[in-house]
């Protein structure tokens, strides 16, 4: 019984899109650079949508949303909470 539960848990974990994607050093370096550029891009805080999308792609592996308000908040949270700044 325990073995079955363990196998089901592993399958559930890997079938979920919410599991953590490990980052390579180059991806971490790119996020660090994009965060430093993005915080003052185009004269505004998180003002460049393309840079914010790139941060989202590097962080999640895909674009979740393209709304400007989401992109700004996602970039801010990623860069500050994950300590890329």
What features would you highlight for this structure?
mainly alpha, 4 helices, 64% helix, 0% strand
Describe this protein's structure:
This protein is an all-alpha fold. Helices cover 64% and strands 0% of the residues. The chain is built from 4 helices and no strands. It has helices at 2-15, 25-38, 49-60, 68-81. Helix 2 runs antiparallel to helix 3 (49-60) and helix 3 (49-60) packs across helix 4 (68-81). The longest helix has 14 residues, at 2-15. The model has no long low-confidence stretch (mean pLDDT 82).
The overall pLDDT average reads: 82
Percentage of β-strand residues: under 5%
Which outline best applies? elongated
- What structural category arises from helix and sheet content? mainly alpha
In short:
By secondary structure, the protein is mainly alpha-helical. It has helices at 2-15, 25-38, 49-60, 68-81.
Topology:
Elements lengths: L1 H14 L9 H14 L10 H12 L7 H14 L4
